[in-house]
Design brief:
single chain; alpha/beta; six-stranded parallel sheet; 4 helices; 6 strands; 16% strand; globular
Length: 159
Amino acid sequence: MKVCITGAASTVALKVIERLNQQHELTLLDIQYPPNFFPKIRKVTGSILDRKLMREVFSGQDAVIHMAIAHEDSSTTNEQRWKVNAEGTLIVAQEAVAVGVKKFIYTSSLSVLDGYDLNLEEPGAEEIEPKQSSFYGFTKHLGELIVKFYAEKQKMKSV
């Protein structure tokens, strides 16, 4: 299966790449990579905000694993979080649908539940209604809603 991973240079994506590399043909996408980052895997350098690039990169892919994010830390602003986590997810979902990607995986965040005083380790905690207290959590929840909309309206399998 041909799989494109956005935000591929992240710590979490590294584990996904290691797991999938032997069984799938991967294309990695990020704004920058560390030196010698999976030298035998196709890498594309660019932003998920570049609609034309997303269409080109997703063309011919069977699946997209969308892991690109603007973190909740002092290195990003709320405007950057909005652009990447909401607008970027919209672009990624729209372009995946436009070129016929069949499977879409969106990596959200437990921050969509940060408005609760919960032990998120308890079974079923992720089944409760999202409630955010952070802007980051809000943008990640919007990403979930965007993906759900396109999955339902465009018949694209998604998680």
